[in-house]
Amino acid sequence: MDCKGIERLLRPRSVAIVGASATPGALGASVLANLQRLGFGGDIHLINPNRAEINGRPCLKRIEDLPPGVDAAVLAIPRAGVLEAVTGLARREVGAAVIFSAGFAEGGEAGRAEQREITAIAATHGMLIEGPNCLGFVNHVDGVALTFVETSPAPLAGRPGIAIVSQSGAMACVLGTMLDSRKLGVSYSISTGNEAASGVEDFIEYLLGESQTPVIGLIVEQFRRPRHLLSLAQRAREVSKRLVLLHPGRSSAARESAATHTGALAGDYALMRAKVEAEGIVTVETLEELSDVLEIAVRTRAPSLPGAAIVAESGAFKALTLDLCEQVDLSLPKLEDANAPALRAAIPAFVPVSNPLDLTAQGLVDPDLYRRTLLALVADARVGAILLGVIQTDPATCERKFPAILQALRELQSAPLIVLAGLDEGAAVPAQYIEALHALGVPYFPSPERAIRAIARLSAGATRTPLGASIPVVLADSPLPSGVIPEYRTKDFLRPLGIPFPAGRLVRTLEEAIETVETLGYPVALKAQSAALSHKSDAGGVVLGLLDRDALASGWRKLHADLARHQPNLSIDGVLVEVMARPGLELIVGGRNDPDWGAVVLAGLGGVQAELWKDARLVLPGQSKASILATLNQLKCAPLLHGYRGSPPLDVPALIDLIACLGQVLDSNPSIRELDLNPVIAYPAGQGVMALDALMVIQRPEF
Q1: What's the whole-model pTM score?
Q2: Is the distance from CB of 70 to CB of 15 less than 8 angstroms?
Q3: Can you give the pLDDT at residue 267?
Q4: How far apart are CA 352 and CA 375, in angstroms?
Q5: Mean of all residue pLDDT scores within the chain
Q6: What domains does the chain contain, in order, with CATH numbers?
Q7: What is the model's pLDDT at position 434?
Q8: Per residue in 166-205, pLDDT tens?
Q9: Cα distance between residue 642 and residue 602, in whole Å
Q10: Contact call for residues 548 and 529 (beta carbons, < 8 A)
Q11: Calculated CA dihedral for residues 206, 211, 212, 218, nearest 10 degrees
């Protein structure tokens, strides 16, 4: 979208209020009061057919009476009149409109139809629409508030600003209140509502070019243009702006899968999170986390390393911290006497060097201890962030500790991210100390747990490297039809690409099976093949471990009898006779092409219990082999990959190659909706991996 339209909305020189009112509490009256309270200096046009003037300002009778080219209009009217009003505004070449009214796309088919008409009018006339079903916006940079929420002036006064872009107007207001209570500047607060003709992506794009907004907080339930969002995230990195996202819906049911385990495991939220985090967007899970991360992001710089050092004044708190850091995946570099000589020299001999570090109560008798400790940690190349947890108790204790801490912070040069947190929330801390910390760019938290969670969120991206380009995979096979592709055809499709499968052949009679096994050798497996048989074992369509001709014949009869009992009318393409693979660790490697987000690969503990244990991680096409290894190491079953209790290490490099190959296949073939290799057997180092089963779903676009 052309950012000029957003410029006319957010920084208008002229405003029209359709439905202006003199009644206190009425939407139109509230918008006018906000403009006056913030000192808006542009032209204000009031439209009310029943009033000649409001508060001394003249009223127009109709939209048709507006001068042409007004920058922005607010529709403070019931839904029934919105479509006609939007049409009239378009004729008067109004640049943008804010629609408060609800009952459109969220209100049934009639509302959806009207919203589609609004979208069409906006597209035809180049008019930007904010909403419908939104609360409007506030621009504290220029002093403009086109919202019915009572808004007071809050100029940035030289502070960097946080922009809020939220589909929920209520949550935008809540977050704004939270940030204001921390004396953080909010540059813009924008509610996008139903997004009939503008969305969060458009406002992000505009804000990336806005000079007073280094940090953008997002509350988004659905991205309507995910790939555009990902490109904006790349641009945000280039211009050193940080995007922090709260995405409600983490526990909602994933989009229904057509056939595969992968589709059930790689849910929408997990996929969205993997994609946005890979592009540098920081994700959080609660409003409190969002406000905490935004505070750190706007007050200080991003951590350059994932490792954090935690300094406190309690041995018990040290143990609690270790538990929490493991839970939130915050890396704590191991610090000890031998590898941290500067820290050893800085602290008393009776205090062991460790991370977290317990300074005991020594800071009361030796306040300079804080300075020496911080200087030593800042000089340590392994530390990207420092959390200083202080027992505050009362003003007298604070007076003993804080001046030394502040002096140390003033002396630090090129310091990493430093956060101070009180261990005793509710202690009476003199306000001047917190203000002094903020002046030095150091966030203050009343709770160390909150600080640790926020630091973990920001540190997660410290070593994340941008995705590389996925290598296209050229396919020699003819195009596959839409729908579920049975195992034997999926294997024929993938085998030339280097994915290893057991030797086998599709047969249609027992005689063909016997003839095939004479070449393959025993033991073998029999697997029924049909596009209507996604999970063969559930219907008795798999017989394993057949050791001789008699067992083969018996297994053939059993397979067909079981199929007839479970699915009497099932027609099969044939039976895949396949050599039994050696046992090993059963994994799942699969993938999907999401129509919005693109390709993703899933890897984890496999077999028939894959969905039960849900021990799986997502890998994106273009991830480096080192990054794929790091992802695999996050699995609960990761110790099994590297040798557990005397078992040999497995061929992890071969597994990584398989995952990378599958990512390339999916990225090169968007018509593959889902692809499932389950199980994949991992063998000891040097012996490779083997995919035993395969299933693919093709969905070609309809024209």
Answers
A1: 0.90
A2: yes
A3: 57
A4: 17
A5: 91
A6: 1-134 (3.40.50.720), 154-300 (3.40.50.261), 303-459 (3.40.50.261), 503-579 (3.30.1490.20), 585-698 (3.30.470.20)
A7: 95
A8: 999 999 999 999 999 999 999 999 999 999 999 999 999 9
A9: 19
A10: no
A11: 30
